[in-house]
Recover the amino acids of this structure.
């Protein structure tokens, strides 16, 4: 898949998001305090600090870098031809990832400017929503060396790749729904709920990716045993 001018023009929503994010960074920069929170623990408490410049522009530069990397990947992937088989999905992934980072950036800027923002609730809900969206489109991915669940089995057999991503996508959707519920409930009397406690949320997030990987491995084994 070649990144020609026409393909880039279809990314116009991404370019708008990046311009808006840059504008928000420029606006916020002179109003930020001397010490800007740039990292939070699982309780939503700031435990990392930076300068006003890093607080305003670091996430923007990371977002731009990620977007450019996503444009380069299809060019350098040995299986670049397969990107044309899910071009619309890959474009959607670029938009979703940029939107996710821009949204988190705006939330952190709002918190640094003194707006009442619950970082733990917003972050957990946003990450879970990202898993939900990615899980919905995971089954459309085709074999590549950079995008998807890449193991020797999935890369060597197109059928195993397809079954792995369909099953893994379902698991990611369920995990996303559970995470969204947890994020929304984390702001409601967290001291009275052991189920939505910070320790439970931290453990559940750590299991998101392993669960999806196990699901993929299950599909691979089923194919190897002729059960699929």
């Amino acid at each position: 898949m070649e990144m020609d001018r026409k393909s880039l023009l279809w990314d116009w929503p991404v370019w708008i998001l990046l311009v808006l994010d840059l504008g928000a960074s420029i606006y916020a920069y002179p109003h930020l305090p001397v010490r800007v929170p740039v990292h939070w623990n699982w309780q939503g408490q700031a435990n990392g600090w930076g300068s006003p410049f890093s607080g305003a522009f670091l996430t923007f530069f990371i977002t731009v870098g990620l977007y450019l990397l996503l444009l380069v990947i299809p060019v350098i992937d040995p299986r670049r031809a397969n990107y044309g088989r899910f071009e619309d999905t890959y474009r959607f992934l670029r938009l979703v990832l940029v939107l996710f980072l821009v949204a988190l950036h705006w939330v952190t800027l709002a918190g640094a400017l003194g707006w009442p923002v619950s970082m733990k609730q917003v972050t957990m809900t946003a990450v879970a929503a990202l898993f939900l969206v990615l899980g919905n489109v995971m089954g459309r991915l085709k074999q590549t060396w950079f995008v998807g669940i890449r193991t020797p089995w999935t890369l060597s057999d197109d059928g195993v790749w397809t079954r792995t991503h369909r099953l893994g996508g379902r698991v990611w959707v369920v995990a996303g729904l559970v995470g969204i519920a947890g994020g929304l409930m984390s702001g409601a009397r967290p001291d009275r709920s052991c189920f939505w406690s910070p320790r439970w949320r931290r453990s559940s997030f750590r299991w998101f990716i392993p669960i999806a990987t196990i699901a993929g491995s299950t599909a691979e084994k089923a194919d190897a045993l002729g059960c699929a």
In short: Strands lie at 36-40, 46-50. Residues 190-196 have pLDDT under 50 and may be disordered. The chain has eight helices and two strands.
